[in-house]
Amino acid sequence: MKLSIIVPVYNMAGDGKLDFCLKSLVNQTISDYEIIAVDDCSTDNSYEVLQQFQRDYPGRFIAVHSPVNLHQGGAKNIGLARAKGEWLGFIDADDWIVPDYYERLIKRAEETGADMVGCDYCLTDEHSFKVGKIVHNNNDTQTGVMDKKRYKNLLLETGSLVVKVYKRNLIVGDYEPGTKDKLQVFPENIFYEDNAVSNTWMLRSKHFEYIPEPLYFYYQHQASTVHSISKKNLEDRMSAGRQIIQEARDNGYFEDYKLEIEFQYTVLFYVNTLFSAMPKQSRLKGCYSFTKALAKEMKETFPGFQNNPYYVDKIHPEEKKLIAYQMKSQLFFYLYYRLLWFYRGLRSGKKN
Q1: Which of 79, 182, 213, 339 places its Cα 20 to 30 Å from the Cα of 305?
Q2: What phi and psi values does residue 112 have, to the nearest 5 degrees?
Q3: What residues have CB less than 8 Å from 73, skipping those under 6 apart?
Q4: Is residue 154 a contact partner of residue 202, using CB atoms and an 8 Å limit?
Q5: Cβ contact 117:208 at 8 Å
Q6: Rounded to two decimals, what is the model's pTM?
């Protein structure tokens, strides 16, 4: 089998989202492949949609039902345990791809000897193949036979996991499909599962290639994980940050890439979480104590993170100023932030 495509599915049947995604998969131009769609205990009729595709495309489409909701990580693990492909790909159940997506990525791999190939994607809010805002998922400085400089560039800008195809061994090693032992690649029951483990795959790659074209369509709607702010969402982001460090220590690359991992952790665990929690419209219960504990753990994990060269170069100056305030005084930071945005809200109202 040339390729296995893993599709985690949870409550995606509405508005034709799941149907549009799956049609883009069953109509791929590559011939030797399978689609393994895993229903993660949906409460809508997503599983019925998957079963219909399995009937319509026997031998190509496999519908699997998880009796327990394990989030995307658990659904991906279930799919990976069944996957037979020499290459592995993932897609979110509300996104879609151009018809020759996998053919082009794998062809580039076979022409160059790469074991991982990515491309760009575009943002869209309509079900069509009209190219929206293009997002460059990777860049040319990361491509070619891997060395330490390229690895560092990949760790700093990993890009989305779903906008790539991977040689099987990068993800599952020598695991054989059908083995009774449970396959645990992704952490389960949390969001941001990709962030937690993808560094290890990047550093297993021997040769990475990149096609600078938007071949993947990322559908934006309010139900998406990235648009959801809740305490669970924020805590999962923090858990993923902790697992980035644990993965690096367990796999022996923490010291070699300490600055890059420190910066990754700082952005995911701390910066993104802090500025998601603080806006008043987030309505986070216990925001003061939550952000205070967040800052405390950040200081304990990487006391000198504000001196990290990537932090100095890449974090927005206003965010750095606010973070410096919090590192000195939680009370001052909290009051200053609230007053600042209250004042800006007033000014914005006057302009309107």
Answers
A1: 339
A2: -110, -15
A3: 186, 187, 188, 189, 190, 193
A4: yes
A5: yes
A6: 0.93
Do residues 43 and 11 lie in contact, with contact meaning Cβ atoms separated by under 8 Å?
Answer: yes
Residue whose token pair is 């952000």: 291
Give, as one character, the DSSP assignment of residue 251: T
Q: Which residues pair with 134 in a beta bridge?
A: 122
Residue with tokens 């802090």: 274
- Kindly state the DSSP code that residue 183 receives in the 8-state scheme: P
| CA–CA gap between residue 184 and residue 103 (Å, rounded) | 28
Share of the chain residues as helix, strand and coil, in percent rounded to the nearest 5: 50, 15, 30
Tell me if residue 6 falls in helix, strand or coil.
strand
One digit per residue, pLDDT tens: the chain, 352 residues? 999 999 999 999 999 999 999 999 999 999 999 999 999 999 999 999 999 999 999 999 999 999 999 999 999 999 999 999 999 999 999 999 999 999 999 999 999 999 999 999 999 999 999 999 999 999 999 999 999 999 999 999 999 999 999 999 999 999 988 776 789 999 999 999 999 999 999 999 999 999 999 999 999 976 554 445 789 999 999 999 999 999 999 999 999 999 999 999 999 999 999 999 999 887 899 999 999 999 999 999 999 999 999 999 999 999 999 999 999 999 999 999 999 988 777 776 655 4
| Residue bearing tokens 């986070």 | 284
- What would you measure as the largest C-alpha separation in the chain, in angstroms? 65
Which residue has 């699997």 as its token pair?
64
Q: What angle (nearest 5°) sits at the alpha carbon of residue 99, between those of residues 97 and 100?
A: 105
Place of tokens 């029951």: 189
Inter-residue contact 129 to 217 (CB < 8 Å): yes
